[in-house]
Amino acid sequence: MGMKSRPHDITNLPARYQDFFNEITVFIPYNRVFADPIRTYAYGVDASLYRINPRLVVKVRTIAEVSAILKNAGKLAVPVTFRAAGTSLSGQALSDSVLLVLAGGWSNYHVGQAGNTISLEPGIIGAEANAYLKPFARKIGPDPASINYAMIGGMAANNASGMCCGTADNSYKTVESMKLVFADGSLLDTADISSREQWAAAHPALMNSIAAIRDEINADEELRAMITHKYKIKNTTGYSLNAFVDYQDPFDIISHLMIGSEGTLGFIAEITYQTVVDHAHKASALMIFPDMDSACRAVMRLTRPLVAAAELIDRVSLTSVEDKPGMPAYLKTLDAGATALLVEIRTEERAALLRQIEEVKGLLADITTVFPIEFTDIKAEYEKLWKIRAGVFPAVGGIREIGTSVIIEDVAFPKEKLAEAVLALRECMNKHGYESGIIYGHALDGNVHFVFTQAFNTQAEYDRYQLFLEEVCAMVVNQYDGSLKAEHGTGRNMAPFVELEWGKKAYSFMQRLKQAFDPAKLINPEVIITDNPNLFMENLKPMPKTHEVIDKCIECGYCELNCPSHNLTSTPRQRIAVQREIARLEKSGEDPVRLQRFIEDYAYFGDETCATDGLCETTCPVGINTGTFTKAKRSVRVTPQAKKIAKFLAANFAGITTMAKLGLGGVHLAHSVLGTCGMTGLASGIRTLSGNRIPQWNKWLPRGGAAPVASGRNRESRLKAVYFPSCLTRMMGPAKEDPDQRQLSAVMLSLLDKAGYQVIYPAAMDKLCCGMPFESKGYFEAADQLSRELEAALLACSNNGEYPVLCDTSPCVYRMKRVMDKRLTIFDTVDFIHDKLLPKLELVKSPETVAIHVTCSATKMGLADKFRTIAQACAAKVIVPEKVRCCGFAGDKGFEVPELNESALEHLKEALPADCKCGYSNSRTCEIGLANTAGLSYQSIAYLVDQCAR
């Protein structure tokens, strides 16, 4: 029984949850509500050290859906938790009840006032918001390290800050207005007067509570002074009580209370930010001090706006990255106590940049450094320095002992106490056996992170961690008057310690706030406010050894935005989490029924719908390619008989290509005779009768290919290139509705001829293949056999690598580059056109608007910019759909599992303007899927270049 057929099994749920399910599925489609064990387990993971499984997962897409769900939750007393990207580090995105996940949708935005404001729905990634503002030289204030992966909803709800925004430009300081949904399902737009009036009239008790708390806090001089003092440094512990000190208007107070409330007071459906300047000039210096005390004293002399950032990096941190590629050699020579300070200056004018550099040097002139302080304003050089800082946390995750968790804690100290406090923190870590832990962070704000690895295999390990955390909390609060959470949010992690930091009186106001906004305690319960003193020690996630490819995963979720199946079934993080649970159950033997169900359901959830594109690796901090893991799992399942068949097919590959051409030719003929409607009906019926075993047909399926024929035009040319048309190119020609009916190989030859190249073909080309189709299915031996044969043929015809080798299909090139003799210089279509052909061709730009799709393999080979450059040289306007990454066609997956392709390209059509009539890519199967979704032809980028080349 497959996963697809049972995601809605609610029979084991308590009655109120069954009622809740039945109520919400009146307006939420079944394919966005899940109760099955594997999906609920997969969503029970975030970037924190906790794991909690929800009973139900609901993917919400509109504000109306959230409102209706909250009304039903209130009626049935069902707790709910909101979740954005799940990059949270303190356990605030988890639930043992109903998890409401932002999926699809939530991506509308509006740039206002020439870029001075931007309105954002909560599903927009932080970096996307900055991309929208880039034309205005503006950006949003918050700049967390996770900005490329975290969503705006989570960033605002956690008051995430980062390296440069400090306390001046965070969400609290830059929020202008919000659209909110409250626990009773009511809606409020704080920018709309009529909305404010209607909401206030309907909520007199809540309005009175806000006014009463405001007045009581402001009447208490001692409490008011404490609140003001505590927000001079970063602080995300508890609720934003400063809202009552900074504002009088109840709606201003509500907006600012929502910042940092972690979904416990309501849902942020839209936020409007006041933006900040994105400075044009930058310079950075990696300052090395002989010890921590010197580095901290240096920081204490630096302030904004003189410097934008000052990142503290201790010696253990530097050691963790010193062997990484591109790191400065001198890192290995530093003494044991050496500490780095990475300082950045940002200005709008270059003259100001130079003045501020000299001012910083002057301020630090009497503090001893290991090397003289030198700033660089060369982009490549300062980016190299920032890679040191960016690599610290991933390095710890990568070298940790398998089975341990990576724990990152986050505190802030008054800057005048920073040196003493950081040394005390290091002493405490060493005392409890965390000598290998690292200390780094945003020292300009007194904010440091400490990272260590921890096993929870024995009671002694639990006890050690608990004692250490309790001692750190006491030290931060009692000795240094600091913040227990500076920017990562309270979550479950620090909820038991909020009263310790704030005191009984201030904490009582926070309890009153929760009671006023959520009297039934139904939205994200136990986060920020809890009566459970042991909450931070409960539901700690297991990290069992699973497979060498994925064991280093720290479950941060940075992989998820690239995954083509993330809105269909699972993401790389979820696949790994499920595999860890399978490994745990296999080892413990505790629940064989659950284990068997996980194994069965994973077939579709994790395997069949994995495109194995490897884009997850490009954003994974520890470099995990979950596609490689999937292929490895497939190879283990390959039977001896299947291996024999694969080897036979590889040995007779010429016959396979001939049969494929004949088959495609027959289908093309049927399409021509029956027409698209008739063929669609026939093909659909046959696929249904076969139980979906017959691949799905669409009108963009090409006719059979043809062998390339060299023109011989440049026979005497000194320019020589080996051209290997991939097996896909040889098997597949144009589709019936493609505007250019030439074979791709003919187009490539035309371009090579125009550029003056003599074309050389490998011998016996019909039987050659790079092995990619076999590798993706797990037939590694057959794949390698074919690769070796192709490698030998290419070496022979390229004069042992003297001539460049051109292959016209990007996934094939990606494999060839990985596995073949390094004497061969292998080019993808895009690479070859950009580097070799464009300088030799005269291009006449087309007035057309065209779309391009950079395949996942081209992305991994770093060809995106070259692809865009080629297209812009050929067409008046080039569209690159921002939300389309991998197309999910994945070789033949688009035929076998078409829903993967459909889900991956969900946002393609909406991104294409009406005047866009054709698209271009560099993989034939990807082009089929793109064309079918977009409703317009996609062909190789070579077609566009050849049309424009003279």
Automatic annotation (TrEMBL):
Annotated Pfam families: CCG (PF02754), FAD-oxidase_C (PF02913), FAD_binding_4 (PF01565), Fer4_8 (PF13183)
Q: Which organism is it from?
A: Dendrosporobacter quercicolus
Keyword field: FAD, Flavoprotein, Iron, Iron-sulfur, Metal-binding, Oxidoreductase, Transit peptide
* SUPFAM superfamilies per the UniProt record, alphabetical: alpha-helical ferredoxin (SSF46548), FAD-binding/transporter-associated domain-like (SSF56176), FAD-linked oxidases, C-terminal domain (SSF55103)
Identify the residues that the record assigns to the FAD-binding PCMH-type domain, covering every copy.
50-278
Per the UniProt record, which EC number(s) apply here? 1.1.2.4
Cofactor dependence: FAD
Give the Gene Ontology MF terms in alphabetical order: D-lactate dehydrogenase (cytochrome) activity; D-lactate dehydrogenase (NAD+) activity; FAD binding; iron-sulfur cluster binding; metal ion binding
- Do the record's keywords include Acetylation? no
Please give the superkingdom of this protein's source: Bacteria
* GO terms classed as biological process: lactate catabolic process
The name this protein goes by in its record: D-lactate dehydrogenase (cytochrome)
Region forming the signal peptide: none
Q: What PANTHER family does the annotation carry? A: D-LACTATE DEHYDROGENASE, D-LACTATE DEHYDROGENASE, MITOCHONDRIAL-RELATED
For the keyword Transit peptide, the answer is: yes
- Domain 4Fe-4S ferredoxin-type, first and last residues per copy: 542-573
What stretch or stretches form a coiled coil here? none
The record's comment on protein family reads:
Belongs to the FAD-binding oxidoreductase/transferase type 4 family.
